[in-house]
Request: fold
Amino acid sequence: MIKISVVIPLYNKEKYIEECLQSVLSQDFSDFEVIVVDDGSTDKSGEFCDKISSSNNKLRVYHIENSGVTAARKYGVEQARGKFIVFADADDRLLSGALQTLYDAIEKTQADEVVSTAENQYGERFDSGWRGWMKPETMIKDLLSLHNSFNVLWGNIYRRELLLDDNVLSTPRAICSGEDKMMQILILLKKPKVYFIEKATYLYNMGIPNDRRPSLERDMLYDRILREALSQQWETYKSHFLLYQIKRYEFFLSIGKFKSYDYYKNVRSEIGVGGGRFALERTLDYQHATIYSVFPCKNI
Reply:
């Protein structure tokens, strides 16, 4: 069995895919494969990958109908032959020695998932400061609080069997923002053994333009899926789910999306939070203040 499969979902990244592939294929780790899933690209990025694969047997390229990034990742995992899975985005890069570092860590610890650190193109470091074993519950609460303390998906290595549950890679195509956090939460709800290391393995290119726009309807769908996923452990995560929603609607109010008002009232009613209409109206008046400071909630 191959030791590591690197799965790269690809959609219209012609400008970046060459550097991404170069960073992966030049790794000093010998026993790995690279799986690119071209998710219906309309530029020449898929053709470029085909050209590279014709002369490099480590690279396999699959072309599928446009289905969204989660579906592309799922397809890649299903084709993977590796014992472990590493994800990379087509506009980012693996740092030198990344695969060896991640493989050594997961083999030494026998963890189900190893989380490393990352840096951006300006040399800034993304580091939670967490080291060693970490409880999945702590990580889920961090994600729900939108702290973004650790690498959510990239810069991590997973045992392949952890990802084979259909539920883990089931986020619908309509969810095109935050789908990586959703995937990580679904993984963590399985209570895997997770180990954090200090070394950076991933370079995240900040500021890459995309066509994602804030959508209340998409957030409502995200909320339904997330709450259903948390339902078996609702009492553990209820207050953090509430904090997540408060922060999301603070964001909508801050950009003038006031039609979120009615949905926010429904959220308050649904999860039994105290406070009246006056508190919510104050939030609308002071939209640049944090909602949870002017609208105190018992469970936060």
The first strand starts at residue 2 and ends at 10.
